[in-house]
Amino acid sequence: MLKKWLFSELGLVLMTVLCSGLQSCKENNKDTDVVMAEEAMAKPQQNNPKKTLSQDFKDYWYAGKAEITSYILDQARYGENRDGNAVLIYVTEPFLPEVQVKADGSGADNIPVLKLNSTKNYLTGIYPYSIMTSSFYPVNANQHALKVSFSAQEWCGQVYMQLNNREDFEVRSHSYFEAEADQQMSLEKTVLENELWNQLRIDPKGLPMGSFNAIPSFEYIRLAHKPMKAYSAEATLEQSPEGNTYTLRYPELERSLTIAFNTTFPYEITGWKETFTSGFGPSAKTMTTTAKKIRTITTPYWQQNSNEYLYLRDSLGL
């Protein structure tokens, strides 16, 4: 009987440990994440000079909350404009540079990142599009994004692409299209359009300017069926009391992206527009996608998964 009782108690302990290790992002303790990220900020990441973070930055981004901003979306797709919505979710978290996922515990190698989860939802006729891009950018701004992932779901099928920043940019892509099915490649490191949305929130003055090579957004690459590679780009920053705009142009792709943002910290993004060729074949034409801000809230959304918090979606206009 004693042996049976001991095995039973041991089993309960093991189950408790296992369940604790499998917690989702919604269940993580916010204070633990903040402490882990602040510890990682003090660790040197590489030989590149680190950006000095202001007290305003620390007070805003390490308050144990995420920043969520909703937008009215006018999306160009298949040569027509579609009504939809977009959401930008920014949050800081500790990141494991080798495994390249969020860290579950404190560690000397953890890197603090500003993560952006960007979502879009719109209808193309009878069927819906759901798009999400995640980018993980070091808050010390001393290297490229550590990871970028993209997925699109619609009734025709699914598309997924992921970039890992290792010795080179390691890219894997999966698609239901025959010509783009399963791909794996290595790219030389250069500017990633997806990381610019993170970098802007940390230090707009540090954004790349002039002429350089850049890898366009994963959303554009996949939905426009363009080769995954770097293209020649030109960037400008215009400043005014009403707000700043950062514009990125790709002459070869005949595409441009303009991001509008506030002039003062935390440099909230008020909207954007993207001009490109929409549609295929004879129906293809130059069109513009626009997004205009609805509202911004800061909240620990991962703790708000019960029905009592549904009103927050209404407040965001979603």
What features would you describe in this structure?
With 318 residues, the protein is of the alpha+beta class. The protein has one domain. The protein is 19% helix and 45% strand. The chain has a 16-stranded mixed sheet that branches. Strand 4 (111-124) and strand 5 (127-138) form a beta hairpin. Mean pLDDT is 87; it is low at 1-24 and 37-47.
Short description:
With 318 residues, the chain is an alpha+beta fold. The chain has six helices and 16 strands.
List the helices and strands and how they pair.
Layout: H1 2-21, H2 30-41, H3 55-61, E1 66-77, E2 80-96, E3 101-102, E4 111-124, E5 127-138, E6 147-154, E7 157-165, E8 169-175, E9 182-187, E10 191-192, H4 193-202, E11 210-215, H5 218-223, E12 231-238, E13 244-250, E14 255-261, E15 269-278, E16 285-299, H6 311-315
Parallel strand pairs: 10-11
Antiparallel strand pairs: 1-2, 1-16, 2-3, 2-4, 4-5, 5-6, 6-7, 7-8, 8-9, 11-12, 12-13, 13-14, 14-15, 15-16
